[in-house]
Amino acid sequence: MKPQDFQSAILKFYQEFGRKDLPWQQNKTSYRVWISEIMLQQTQVATVIPYYQRFMERFPDLESLAAAPQDDVLALWSGLGYYSRARNLHKCAQTLINDHQGQWPDNVEAMESLPGIGRSTAGAILSLAQNIRAPILDGNVKRVLCRFYTVEGWPGQTSVAKKLWQIAEEQTPQKQVAEFNQAMMDMGATVCTRSKPKCTSCPLQSHCQALSKQVQSNYPNSKPKKEKPTKEQRFAVIKVGNKVLLEKRPAPGIWGGLWCLPEIPEQVDDDAVWIQSQWKGKLAEQHEIEPFRHTFSHYHLILKPALMTLTKQPTQVMDSDHVRWQDLSQIEQLGLPAPIAKLLKQLEQESYVQESLL
Question: For the segment 298-317, what is each residue's pLDDT rounded down to a tens digit?
Answer without folding.
Answer: 899 999 999 999 988 887 66
